């Protein structure tokens, strides 16, 4: 995210309000409340409208894996439907690679979808009358790509998701996990830069889910796409995310790295989410590290690194009470950590 | 009266139902009491009616006059495909036709369908009605594509432009209630005599089910599937035809199936206008000549076609798997080879009289049977007529005659009926069932007066009350407004006659169908027997029902009643059973755990839970009864059906349309009210 290249996705003050005359009602409500989003949303609710997304502002950098998390009905699906323009946002600006797409022409949107965007659906959204290969090749078919080329590319992505041999099966003949792989393969067929995944793994049982998560991370390590990934599973979010946005009733209540979310929850709602997570396994030493000038390290050096998890770090300094140094890869001391802080960081939730 | 009816009960804290019943009761009592002084209260004077029929006639003739050149041009245009279809079907050697249908059967449904196709068409061949059947098929073959295109286009447009959906749905709803014969008269004027009328009528009649199913199918495509198409970068037309329509295929195929069946049914009904040597005409002709053996044979040919078409197109909707095409080629090749080999010796299908002896045997057998059992049959018929139908129609006071009942009705007896009703009413009220008590009293009054002779204010207030309870004030006002139109148009008496016959049939269907539905619900064995019968009855085109009842009971109201019941009972059976067997198992388990016996569970859990479904079945039964009522006019009913049929014979557009509209109004109101009750029940159950 340097200053010169624009972010992959930039949303500013995006609203999605369901109900009759939503746009007018939103304008009026914002006028009355002087632009206070929460008050305006409350007013809209009173009028019987549904403010499913309220004043959402965030950016997703190129190659970043951005996770949106929240309870059922908090507006996660709605927000990516706005970004992908499946829904016309009621208000706000949405830019992809710096190009404003709100109010873009139909042709332009179709072109963007053919070239830049891929989407995986919560309930798969597979075409029941097409085989696996035809499903996967459909985005190419609508562009008029020749049949042989289509088949070839479909074959590539099908092997990427590990479904070789099932090309000619129909969706109804596949298991849930296999169906979702088809959905993933289809969304990758045109090799999009921006990839939306709406709870891709939540319909699956835990074992398959873990397996697909690992494969997903592997795929992402190779492809380096800009990703918006939706989940309501905190463990999944912490495992995958570069950054996490937490939504509640249409509002984004916190955006931060996994460690931020675990160690510095913005409110009780967020704290509630991370209650059951083993924090030590997600937060890194970096998040409790302080400059050497503030905290001169003592004589002991257990060899801490900034990207160690808190659990690991704690294991290294079980017997220590003095501040200890943290080294970077070259071995230089870049900061210090107080073992007491390490323990305290893991205690946040019990207070 | 308002004070008495509104203030008093509301002060007593009565439910709306009770209040409505009370108002209706008071109106009825008032009418009866005032009858000697104000006879117009009971019978609407002819002088007060408007010449609505003539107005309708003038207006429609004017409109039709404008449309005529266009219509005639269209008719001329349609003559080509019809002639081609006729030629193609009649010129194709019959072994090839049989081979084609058998091969198609194989392709769609394997051995069973192939056998069905082969045996069915062989039967048609053996019956000697081959060319008549081909003429009928030719009409179907042209009208169905027309209906599919029109219906499909309407469905697609309604889907593309959501604004169009409510009006389109409303028109489709209304078209469902307009009786079949009523289409024919204006079409006759528009297109002139000839098969084109049958063609257009069947296309008009068959298009709505297609449109409905297309709309429903497209609506039901999962939104994520539609969105996946959008995100794949598909244009609107690509989305529609590559994703949405194929995803909705099964529902659309259900539409195709219904469209085919409707077209066939209507083509056969349209035979009454004649001019086309088809199988429906054959049935009519033989029926009029009382050659019931032949008539039955021709009717069976129609049934065979209906079954073959229904099962094969049904297979389209259910099965995705298609069978080995090599067998198809084999069968076709075999048929072609046979034809070529025996070309010179291939008998003309009209010469097949294999089944003629059977027809004759049926005739003589029937003759002997009626001769031997005539007394018994007449006894059934007269018993039903004199002791049930007639009293319901004209009331006990006129139906009880020394000649039939053995004594004459006296005013004292009327008082006795009222007193008995009042006593029962009081008992019910005393047991806390006020509404039921009032209904008993209303029933007693109706029994004494007769449905066809009910005072018009009573009927109007009754309709208003039912509308109010079923669907609120709007339905109530609508009911009164529409009924008033019938009253003013001078069709009231006939409408009441139709109401009586359909009402009696519906009650009979409700009792009989309810019983069989219940029985099938508790005994899977019974269902195994009842289900195929229901399937069969539902496949048979309306027209064919007339043959067997005529064979045994001759022309008359009782025959019409039986035909209506035979056709309309099916939905009642199906829905009752379906409602009863789909009680959630948790509810049943909870009842069993509370120690309820089988019948207690049925009464306290399953029946209430099934009530909305059963009401929907009743609704279907009512619509079926109205549809059949018009057809039954062919074998002797009075009322609107007869008017519509007569209007067709005289090409009297005004009468045809007005009577058709009156019939549609009755069906529409009945539909809305029962739907309203069903909806209310569903809400009460929190479904
Ligand atoms: N088309 C619509 N019309 C009206 N309300 C809608 C529509 N789509 C979504 N909503 C409402 O918007 C809110 C947010 O829905 P959304 O589907 O975005 O939730 P979600 O966070 O994705 O939930 P889940 O985890 O269950 O998928 C819900 O209250 C939902 O009822
Ligand atoms: Mg969602």
Automatic annotation (TrEMBL), chain A:
UniProt-annotated location(s): Cell inner membrane
Primary subcellular site in the record, as a coarse category: membrane
EC numbers, comma separated: 7.6.2.9
GO molecular function, one term: ATP hydrolysis activity
Domain ABC transporter: 37-274
A GO cellular component entry from the record: plasma membrane
Keyword ATP-binding tagged: yes
Keyword set includes NADP: no
Classification via SMART domains: AAA
Top enzyme category: translocase
Keywords assigned: ATP-binding, Cell inner membrane, Cell membrane, Membrane, Nucleotide-binding, Transport
Membrane topology: Peripheral membrane protein
Catalytic activity: a quaternary ammonium(out) + ATP + H2O = a quaternary ammonium(in) + ADP + phosphate + H(+)
GO biological process assignments: amino acid transport; glycine betaine transport; response to osmotic stress
Subunit comment: The complex is probably composed of two ATP-binding proteins, two transmembrane proteins and a solute-binding protein.
Sequence similarity: Belongs to the ABC transporter superfamily.
Name of protein: Quaternary amine transport ATP-binding protein
Species name: Jhaorihella thermophila
From TrEMBL, chain B:
Pfam families in the cross-refs: BPD_transp_1
Xref: InterPro entries: MetI-like, MetI-like_sf
Domain of life (superkingdom): Bacteria
Positions of transmembrane segments: 20-42, 87-107, 113-130, 137-158, 181-206, 259-276, 296-318, 327-346, 412-430, 437-459, 471-492, 499-522, 542-570, 622-647, 653-674
Keywords associated with the record: Cell membrane, Membrane, Transmembrane, Transmembrane helix, Transport
Subcellular location: Cell membrane
GO biological process, alphabetically ordered: choline transport; glycine betaine transport
Gene3D superfamilies: MetI-like
Domain ABC transmembrane type-1 stretches: 133-313, 495-674
Presence of keyword Lyase: no
Main location: membrane
GO MF assignments: amine transmembrane transporter activity; carnitine transmembrane transporter activity
Membrane topology, record value: Multi-pass membrane protein
GO CC field: ATP-binding cassette (ABC) transporter complex
Sequence similarity: Belongs to the binding-protein-dependent transport system permease family.
Protein name: Glycine betaine/proline transport system permease protein
Lineage summary: Bacteria, Pseudomonadati, Pseudomonadota, Alphaproteobacteria, Rhodobacterales
């Amino acid at each position: 995210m340097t200053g010169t290249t624009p972010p992959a996705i930039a949303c500013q003050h995006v609203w999605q309000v369901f109900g009759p005359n939503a746009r007018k009602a939103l304008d009026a409500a914002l006028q009355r409340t002087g632009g206070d989003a929460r008050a305006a949303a409350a007013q809209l609710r009173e009028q019987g409208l549904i403010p499913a997304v309220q004043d959402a502002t965030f950016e997703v950098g190129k190659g970043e894996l951005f996770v949106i998390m929240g309870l059922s009905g908090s507006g996660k699906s709605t927000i990516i439907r706005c970004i992908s323009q499946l829904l016309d946002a009621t208000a706000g600006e949405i830019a992809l690679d710096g190009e404003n797409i709100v109010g873009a022409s139909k042709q332009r949107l179709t072109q963007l979808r053919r070239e830049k965007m891929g989407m995986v659906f919560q309930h798969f959204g597979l075409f029941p009358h097409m085989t696996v290969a035809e499903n996967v090749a459909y985005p190419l078919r609508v562009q008029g790509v020749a049949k042989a080329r289509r088949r070839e590319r479909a074959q590539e992505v099908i092997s990427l998701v590990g479904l070789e041999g099932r090309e000619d099966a129909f969706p109804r003949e596949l298991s849930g996990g296999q169906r979702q792989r088809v959905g993933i393969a289809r969304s990758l067929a045109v090799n999009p830069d921006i990839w939306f995944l709406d709870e891709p793994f939540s319909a699956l049982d835990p074992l398959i889910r873990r397996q697909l998560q690992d494969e997903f991370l592997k795929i992402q390590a190779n492809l380096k796409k800009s990703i918006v990934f939706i989940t309501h599973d905190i463990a999944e979010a912490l495992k995958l995310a570069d950054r996490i946005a937490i939504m509640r009733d249409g509002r984004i209540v916190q955006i931060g790295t996994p460690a931020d979310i675990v160690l510095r929850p913005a409110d009780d709602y967020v704290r509630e989410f991370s209650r059951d997570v083993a924090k030590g396994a997600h937060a890194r030493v970096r998040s409790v590290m302080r400059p050497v000038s503030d905290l001169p390290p003592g004589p002991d050096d257990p060899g801490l690194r900034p990207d160690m998890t808190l659990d690991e770090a704690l294991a290294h300094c079980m017997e220590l009470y003095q501040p200890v140094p943290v080294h970077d890869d070259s071995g230089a001391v870049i900061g210090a950590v107080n073992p007491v802080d390490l323990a305290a960081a893991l205690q946040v939730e019990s207070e | 009266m308002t004070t008495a009816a509104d203030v008093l009960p509301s002060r007593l804290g009565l439910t709306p139902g009770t209040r409505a019943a009370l108002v209706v009761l008071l109106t009825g009592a008032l009418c009866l009491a005032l009858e000697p002084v104000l006879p117009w209260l009971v019978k609407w004077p002819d002088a007060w009616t408007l010449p609505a029929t003539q107005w309708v006639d003038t207006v429609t003739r004017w409109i039709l006059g404008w449309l005529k050149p266009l219509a005639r041009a269209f008719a001329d245009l349609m003559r080509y495909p019809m002639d081609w279809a006729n030629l193609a079907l009649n010129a194709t050697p019959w072994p090839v036709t049989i081979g084609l249908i058998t091969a198609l059967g194989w392709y769609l449904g394997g051995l069973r369908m192939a056998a069905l196709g082969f045996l069915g068409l062989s039967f048609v061949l053996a019956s000697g009605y081959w060319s008549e059947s081909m003429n009928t098929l030719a009409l179907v073959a042209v009208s169905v594509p027309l209906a599919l295109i029109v219906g499909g286009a309407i469905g697609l447009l309604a889907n593309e432009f959501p604004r169009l959906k409510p009006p389109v749905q409303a028109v489709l709803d209304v078209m469902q209630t307009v009786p079949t014969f009523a289409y024919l008269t204006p079409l006759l004027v528009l297109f002139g005599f000839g098969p084109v009328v049958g063609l257009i009528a069947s296309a008009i009649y068959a298009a709505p089910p297609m449109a409905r199913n297309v709309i429903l199918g497209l609506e039901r495509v999962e939104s994520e599937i539609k969105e996946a198409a959008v995100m794949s970068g598909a244009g609107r037309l690509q989305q529609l035809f590559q994703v949405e329509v194929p995803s909705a295929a099964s529902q659309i195929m259900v539409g195709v199936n219904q469209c085919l069946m409707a077209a066939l049914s209507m083509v056969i009904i349209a035979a009454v206008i004649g001019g086309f040597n088809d199988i429906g005409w054959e049935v009519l002709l033989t029926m009029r000549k009382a050659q019931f053996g032949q008539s039955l044979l021709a009717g069976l040919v129609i049934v065979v076609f209906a079954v073959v078409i229904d099962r094969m197109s049904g297979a389209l909707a259910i099965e995705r798997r298609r069978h080995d095409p090599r067998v198809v080629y084999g069968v076709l090749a075999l048929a072609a080879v046979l034809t070529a080999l025996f070309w010179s010796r291939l008998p003309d299908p009209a010469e097949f009289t294999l089944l003629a002896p059977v027809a004759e045997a049926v005739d003589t057998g029937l003759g002997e049977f009626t001769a031997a059992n005539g007394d018994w049959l007449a006894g059934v018929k007269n018993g039903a007529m004199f002791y049930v139908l007639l009293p319901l129609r004209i009331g006990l006071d006129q139906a009880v005659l020394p000649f039939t009942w053995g004594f004459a009705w006296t005013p004292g007896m009327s008082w006795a009926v009222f007193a008995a009703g009042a006593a029962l009413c009081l008992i019910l009220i005393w047991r806390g069932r006020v509404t039921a008590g009032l209904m008993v009293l209303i029933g007693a009054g109706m029994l004494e007066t007769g449905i066809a002779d009910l005072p018009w204010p009573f009927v109007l207030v009754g309709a208003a009350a039912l509308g109010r309870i079923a669907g609120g004030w709007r339905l109530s006002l609508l009911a009164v407004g529409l009924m008033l139109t019938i009253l003013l148009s001078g069709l009231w008496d006939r409408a009441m006659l139709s109401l009586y016959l359909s009402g009696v049939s519906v009650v009979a269907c409700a009792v009989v169908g309810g019983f069989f539905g219940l029985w099938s619900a508790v005994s899977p064995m019974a269902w195994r027997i009842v289900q195929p019968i229901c399937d069969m009855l539902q496949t048979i085109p309306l027209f064919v029902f007339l043959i067997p009842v005529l064979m045994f009971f001759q022309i008359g109201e009782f025959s019409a009643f039986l035909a209506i019941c035979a056709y309309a009972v099916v939905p009642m059976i199906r829905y009752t059973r379906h409602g009863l067997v789909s009680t959630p198992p948790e509810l049943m388990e909870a009842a069993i755990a509370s120690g309820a016996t089988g019948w207690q569970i049925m009464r306290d859990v399953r029946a209430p839970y099934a009530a909305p479904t059963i009401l929907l079945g009743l609704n279907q039964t009512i619509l079926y009864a109205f549809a059949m009522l018009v057809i039954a006019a062919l074998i002797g009913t009075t009322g609107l059906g007869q008017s519509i049929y007569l209007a067709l014979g005289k090409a009297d557009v005004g009468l045809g349309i007005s009577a058709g509209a009156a019939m549609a109004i009755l069906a529409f109101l009945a539909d809305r009210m029962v739907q309203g009750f069903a909806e209310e029940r569903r809400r009460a159950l929190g479904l």
